[in-house]
């Protein structure tokens, strides 16, 4: 597929202006000056090079600058593209929203879905479907590379482009087979670990300038820039034409200040015992690092878990596993967090709380439930709808804490409602933490942001954090400052340390005493003051200088440091001495353990066979009966805990409900929502009402299918309830049944929008009210039941009909129809909605209405294309015939609607030797007529 020939701009302009971009289709945003400068730089790269890297810090608007370049290419150069945008699945929805908001003139194709959906899209594209921008994910691009590479792409945009840092990655290899004229990489973290990664990105955008086979030469050439300032200047000059990076401190002067704070905490006595036990668990691994790195890394991970909370290990939490203060007191980190959250809650702050481990999030969730704090949670297991709902709830409601995993919650979200970010633990890659913190500190934030990192004093957490700081300094020196004093220097961070030495860090002070080292702290002094829920940034506590050595007597210096400056040391000779002393004590203990101990003494690594526990404490093995009793207690405790959480959840919901009721009363609002069906008699009746679609209905239990306008129901003398499905936005729709209902009555829009204003549109709610204000029947009243069965998010994206909400609404309508002795009239819900499950919907209508004795009518609107039916206007059943005839004589706007043809009434349909999937499809088509299906 050929690319369009571009034209040169009619006038050579000295400088691209925002007015030009608006003329070419930019809407919904006013670019900041640095963003406009970025677009100008991108246009120059487009003219002179094969690619570039936009490496602005997270939250500075790389997406809008990229979209502006696409508009420039189309408007100034006359190119229709096509443009290919690749991004992670987690940010694809954000790209879609911003494309529609900033560049509605560009035809966007979201190339996503399962295999069948993509095959359908491929057919449309081959058939000539037009688009300017194709948006898809890395994985789908890799999977469908053979199809996508048939285009000659004018511009490729790769978001979160550090995915391409590995020269041997499958995605990178696949993209090199594409025809691409210009490659633009977006990444807030162009350097994560080494110069090798920088070269890898450069070789992707400019393969002729930076050949892949010259990577080692590049790294070697610039490895010793510390002693050669001219070489450093040269490297900066090499990078400058291809990479643009701005940080918030330089360009976003209007962005509120971000203060980063490291707060140290002590360890409980229980944590200390387990920390020592973990170190002694695999003694053989410490003999040398050769071949033992996997085992040492496992020890490192176990130590980090211990510093977070000892209950992460099985068998540590005391039985009978009930919620209590022991959950807090067992961990020095959680003790500090407990007092910190109390301080933040009183100050009116809102918090993003991050951890790398989902099991830590589980403990935090129990803790938040125990303390009664409101929260939302998002981790890698949360998908689609639930993810969006959690974000929506945190944004729109007064939720105190958002509990997030660092990786899952670190990209694709704008959470500027929070002004405090807390990291329970640090990621080995500091860029992931930066990405996470940028959820709150970004364009749109109006308050100062405090980023707090909790570190276990004299533990491996300190050394992990030191390595992270070293990697960040690498990024700063390579990209932002043009200085490279820390590149490839073994003394920076912990680069020159053996892994076994890292694990010994801090043991001298940490294990000098078995008692808890947790201390009380003055959070007002540490965190700073706030007013009306906002941090005050004018005054700060005095900071220790780099020359000052924190003494043991100086509690404040020992407990925390400010602005991310770390004063920890490398593992000392005292640490090594203490470790060796503990090792000898462990061997002596094993020697005294008898025969088994003497065998273990000859091979220290045999300590791995012992269960993780307090050293020297030997337990009697439990019998099977005792183990089963323990498991039973755990199950009972888990059930009790779940019940307690459910009770607290109901209590919070009831409190919110009472608050809403008080608001409604003060506003003079009366809810029109139907109550839930909750009588025991009705519930028992429902249990026996799961009617199969293949059963033979009696006439009074049949669904009646008619042609006509549902807004003028074909009812006799009984009341009639018209059913319509709406979303939870409170914005009345246009066209179709929405317009027809407005013509019939002024009430639908009025009552629905009022309910939206009063937050009375929860999923499953049913608004019921009369619509006889303009026109009424002689006998019987007409009501409208609006079922809230769809959701609309803040970006105006509408979900499909939720069958669970529809079912809940139908139950309520059944109760109302029974009380009023009314018939129910529905359009074919979801008609023409692609992929909608009409078969399942019809079963719900049958189950909750017609099979329970409610006269139920489904209307097929007679379009202009249909002039007549192929048979006399008879109903699908005698009951339908009588009601239709009565309706025609009752006024109803003078609109008489014939029923569906009944010339095949009473026909029996048998399926023979037909696949189940095809049978289901056929049954869905045939059920509209009164056939008996077998």
Explain what you see.
With about 950 residues, this protein is an alpha/beta fold. The chain folds into 4 domains: about 180 residues, Tandem AAA-ATPase domain (Rossmann fold, 3-Layer(aba) Sandwich); about 220 residues, P-loop containing nucleotide triphosphate hydrolases (Rossmann fold), CATH 3.40.50.300; about 45 residues; about 250 residues, Leucine Aminopeptidase, subunit E, domain 1 (3-Layer(aba) Sandwich), CATH 3.40.220.10. It is about 40% helix and about 10% strand. The strands form 5 sheets. A 7-stranded parallel β-sheet has the order 3-4-2-5-6-1-7, sandwiched between helices. A 7-stranded mixed β-sheet has the order 10-11-9-12-13-8-16, with helices on both faces. Strand 14 and strand 15 form a beta hairpin. Helix 31 packs parallel to helix 32. The longest helix has about 45 residues. The radius of gyration is 34 Å and the shape is globular. It starts with 17 loop residues before the first helix and ends with a strand.
Number of helix segments?
Answer: 34
Assigned CATH architecture of the largest domain? 3-Layer(aba) Sandwich
CATH class designation of the largest domain: Alpha Beta
Number of separate strands: 24
Terminal CA distance reads: 51 Å
What would you call the structural class?
Answer: alpha/beta
The largest sheet, given as strand count, sense and whether it forms a barrel, is:
7 strands, parallel
Overall structural domain count: 4
- Uncertain spans: 7-14, 479-497, 539-569, 597-619, 679-697, 864-903, 927-934
**CATH fold group of the largest domain:** Leucine Aminopeptidase, subunit E, domain 1
Overall geometry: globular
Question: Order of strands in the sheet with the most strands?
Answer: 3-4-2-5-6-1-7
CA radius of gyration: 34 Å
CATH superfamily of the largest domain: Leucine Aminopeptidase, subunit E, domain 1
Main location: nucleus
Pfam families: Helicase_C (PF00271), SNF2-rel_dom (PF00176)
Family: Belongs to the SNF2/RAD54 helicase family.
Subcellular location: Chromosome; Nucleus
């Amino acid at each position: 597929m050929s690319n369009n020939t571009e034209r040169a701009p009619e006038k050579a302009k000295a400088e691209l202006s925002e007015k030009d971009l608006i003329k070419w289709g930019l809407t919904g945003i006013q670019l900041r000056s640095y963003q406009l400068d970025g677009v100008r730089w991108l246009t120059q790269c487009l003219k002179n090079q094969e690619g570039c890297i936009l490496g602005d810090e997270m939250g500075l608007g790389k997406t809008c600058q990229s979209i502006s370049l696409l508009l420039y290419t189309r408007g100034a150069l006359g190119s229709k593209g096509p443009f290919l945008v690749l991004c992670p699945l987690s940010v694809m929805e954000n790209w879609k929203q911003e494309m529609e908001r900033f560049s509605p003139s560009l035809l966007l194709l979201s190339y996503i879905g399962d295999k069948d959906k993509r095959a359908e899209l491929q057919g449309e594209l081959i058939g000539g479907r037009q688009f300017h921008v194709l948006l898809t994910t890395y994985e789908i691009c890799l999977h469908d590379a053979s199809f996508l590479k048939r285009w000659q792409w004018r511009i490729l945009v790769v978001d979160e482009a550090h995915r391409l840092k590995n020269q041997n990655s499958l995605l990178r290899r696949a993209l090199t087979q594409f025809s691409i004229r210009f490659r633009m990489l977006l990444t807030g973290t162009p350097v994560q670990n080494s110069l090798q990664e920088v070269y890898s990105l450069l070789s992707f955008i400019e393969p002729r300038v930076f050949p892949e086979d010259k990577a080692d030469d590049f790294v070697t050439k610039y490895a010793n820039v510390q002693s050669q300032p001219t070489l450093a200047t040269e490297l900066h000059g090499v990078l400058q034409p291809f990479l643009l990076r701005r940080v918030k401190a330089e360009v976003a002067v209007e962005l509120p200040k971000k203060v980063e704070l490291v707060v140290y905490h002590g360890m409980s006595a229980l944590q200390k015992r387990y920390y020592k036990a973990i170190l002694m668990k695999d003694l053989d691994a410490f003999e040398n690092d050769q071949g033992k790195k996997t085992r040492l890394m496992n020890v490192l991970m176990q130590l980090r878990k211990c510093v977070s909370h000892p209950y992460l290990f099985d068998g540590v939490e005391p039985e009978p596993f009930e919620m209590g203060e022991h959950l807090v007191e067992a961990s020095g980190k959680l003790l500090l967090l407990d007092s910190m959250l109390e301080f933040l809650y009183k100050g009116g702050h809102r918090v993003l709380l991050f951890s790398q481990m989902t099991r830590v999030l589980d403990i935090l969730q129990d803790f938040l439930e125990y303390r009664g704090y409101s929260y939302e949670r998002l981790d890698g297991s949360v998908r689609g709808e639930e993810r969006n709902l959690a974000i929506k709830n945190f944004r729109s409601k007064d939720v105190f804490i958002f509990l997030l995993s660092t990786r899952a919650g670190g990209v694709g979200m704008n959470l500027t409602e929070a002004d405090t970010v807390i990291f329970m633990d640090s990621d080995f890659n500091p860029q992931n933490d930066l990405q996470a913190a940028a959820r709150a500190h970004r364009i749109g934030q109006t308050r100062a942001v405090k980023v707090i990192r909790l570190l276990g004093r004299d533990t491996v957490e300190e050394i992990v954090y030191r390595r992270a700081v070293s990697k960040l300094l690498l990024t700063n020196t390579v990209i932002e400052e043009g200085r490279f004093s820390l590149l490839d220097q073994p003394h920076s961070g912990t680069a020159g340390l053996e892994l076994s030495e890292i694990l010994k860090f801090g043991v001298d002070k940490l294990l000098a005493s078995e008692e808890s080292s947790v201390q009380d702290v003055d959070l007002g002094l540490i965190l700073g003051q706030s007013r009306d829920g906002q941090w005050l940034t004018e005054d700060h506590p005095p900071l220790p200088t780099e020359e000052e050595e924190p003494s043991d007597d100086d509690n404040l210096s020992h407990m925390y440091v400010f602005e991310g400056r770390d004063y920890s040391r490398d593992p000392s000779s005292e640490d090594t001495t203490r470790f060796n002393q503990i090792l000898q004590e462990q061997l002596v203990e094993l020697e005294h353990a008898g025969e088994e101990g003497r065998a273990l003494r000859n091979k220290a690594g045999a300590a791995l066979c012992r269960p993780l526990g307090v050293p020297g404490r030997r337990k009697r093995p439990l019998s099977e009966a005792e183990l089963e009793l323990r498991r039973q207690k755990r199950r009972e405790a888990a059930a009790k805990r779940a019940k307690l959480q459910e009770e607290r959840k109901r209590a919070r919901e009831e409190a919110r409900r009472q608050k809403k009721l008080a608001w409604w009363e003060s506003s003079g609002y009366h809810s029109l929502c139907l109550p839930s069906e909750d009588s025991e008699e009705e519930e028992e009746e429902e249990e026996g009402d799961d009617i199969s679609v293949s059963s033979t209905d009696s006439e009074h239990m049949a669904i009646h299918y008619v042609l006509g306008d549902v807004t003028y129901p074909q009812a006799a003398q009984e009341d009639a309830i018209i059913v319509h499905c709406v979303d939870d936005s409170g914005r009345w729709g246009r066209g179709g049944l929405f317009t027809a209902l407005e013509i019939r009555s002024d009430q639908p829009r009025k009552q629905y929008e009022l309910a939206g204003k009063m937050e009375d549109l929860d999923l499953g709610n049913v608004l019921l009210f009369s619509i006889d204000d303009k026109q009424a029947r002689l006998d019987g009243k007409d009501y409208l039941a609006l079922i809230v069965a769809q959701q609309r998010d803040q970006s105006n994206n509408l979900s499909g009909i939720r069958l669970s909400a529809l079912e809940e609404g139908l139950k309520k309508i059944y109760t109302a129809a029974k009380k009023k002795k009314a018939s129910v009239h529905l359009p074919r819900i979801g008609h023409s909605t692609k992929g909608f499950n009409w078969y399942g919907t019809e079963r719900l209508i049958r189950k909750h209405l017609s099979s329970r004795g409610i006269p139920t009518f489904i209307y097929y609107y007679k379009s202009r294309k249909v002039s007549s039916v192929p048979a006399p206007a008879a109903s699908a059943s005698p009951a339908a015939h009588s009601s239709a005839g009565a309706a025609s004589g009752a006024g109803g706007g003078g609109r008489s609607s014939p029923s569906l043809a009944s010339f095949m009434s009473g026909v029996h349909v048998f399926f023979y030797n037909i696949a189940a999937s095809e049978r289901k499809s056929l049954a869905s088509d045939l059920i509209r007529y009164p056939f008996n299906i077998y």
